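If your schedule permits, I should be very grateful for your opinion on a structural question. The matter concerns a single protein, recorded as an amino acid sequence and a row of C-alpha cells. Could you please explain, in whatever detail you think fit, how the C-alpha cells follow from the sequence? I set the record out below, with my sincere thanks for your time.

——
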Amino acid sequence: MNLDIIVQNIIDNWWQLALIPFVSAAVGYITNLMALKMMFKPMEFIGIPPYLGWQGIVPRKAAVMAGIAVDTMTTKLIKPEEIFERLDPHRVAAELEEPMRMMADDIVYDVMAEHQPTLWATLPDLAKQRVVKRVQRDSPALIAEIMDKVRYNLDEMFDVKDMVITSLMRDKELLNRIFLDVGEPEFKFIARSGAYFGFLFGMVQMIVYAVYPASWVLPFFGLLVGYGTNWIALKMIFEPKEPVRVGLIKIQGLFLKRQTEVASHYGELIASEILTPANIIEGVFKGAGSDRLFKVIEREVKRAVDESIGVTMPMIAMTVGTKNYRRMKASAIERLVDRLPSTVKHIGTYAEDAMDIRNTIVERMKLLTPTEFERLLRPAFEQDEWLLIAVGALLGMAAGFAQLVIMFGGG
C-alpha cells in the first residue's frame, strides 16, 4: 500500500481509527473482568454436563483448592498438636463445670425414668439428689481426663486436614472468599490492567490498521489483547518472586510485596472462619478419628460410673438386674456422647484466647519465603489458567470482529 492510499485511509476513517485504542481498552478490561468472574462463579455447574456449560474454576476444583490451602496451614503456619497443647485440661473442666452439672442432671433423670421408672419414682428426693450430685461432682474430672487422652493421642483422634477440607467443601462460598479476600487488590489490578494494556495494544492496532486495513487485523489484535492482558497481569502479580533492583526502583510481584498486610488479613479470616474452637471441637467429635474418641469416652465414662457407684454396685445390680444396669449405663454413655459436643462449645471464649490461632498464623506468615507465600493465592490461577487466558483471547477476537463490522462495515 503506497503512502497516498494510507493517508486517504486515515482521512476517511480518522474517527474510527481514533476509537480503536479506547475500544481495545474496554475489551481488555471486560475480558479480564469476565475471566475473574469465571474463576469463582457460578458456584454450581450451569449448562449441559459434562462439557457444554461452566462452573467456576475454584468451586469446581474445591477438593484440590481446599487440599492446597490446608497443606499451607498445617505444614507452614500452625500444627494441631500445638493448638491442643495450649489448652489446660483443668481449666477446660472448670469452664465446663456449670454446663456439665446441668447435663448430668438431665442424663440421670432421663436414664432412670426410661429404664427404672418405678424405682426412680419411689426413690426419696434426697436419694435422687445424692445420685445426681455424685455424677455432677465427677463430671468435670471426667472431661479433664478425656482431654488428656485426646492430647496424647491426637493423631488418632483428630484429623485437621479432614476437618478443613470438609468445611471448605461444604461451604464453597467460604473457599472463594479465602482467595478473593486475600487477593482483592490483585484481582482489581487484573481488571484495571486490562484497560491499561488494552489501550497500549490498541495504539499499535490503530497504527497497523491505518497502514494495512486488512479484515483480519482487528480480530487478530482483539485476540492479542484478550490473551496478552491476562498473561501480563498474572506475571506482574507473581513475578519476580524475590525483589529485584532496577536502578533506583525495586521490583517484586504485586502480591508478594503485600506479605505483611496479607498476613494480618489471612490470619483473621482463618481464625474466625475455619480454625475456630467450634469447628475444631466439631472436627474432634465428628471427624475421621471420632470413632476412636468415642471409644475413649465410653471407656472413661464406664470407669467413672463404676467408681461412683463403688461398693453400692452389688446392691444396685440386685435391685435393677445386672443386664438392665448395663443397659442403663450404655444409655447414659450414649446420651453423654450425643450432648458432649454442644456442651464443650461453652469453652469457646477461653479456647480462642488460649489457642491464639490468629496471632500465630500472622507471625508465621510474615516469616514465609516468597515461594511459600505465593502458594496462598497462586493455586486459584494455576488450575486451568490456560483456559482462562484462552477464553479471554476468544472474547477479545470476537470483540475484534464486532469492531470490524460495526465501525468499519466489515473491512
Q: What stands out?
A: The first strand starts at residue 46 and ends at 48. The chain has one domain: 3-408.
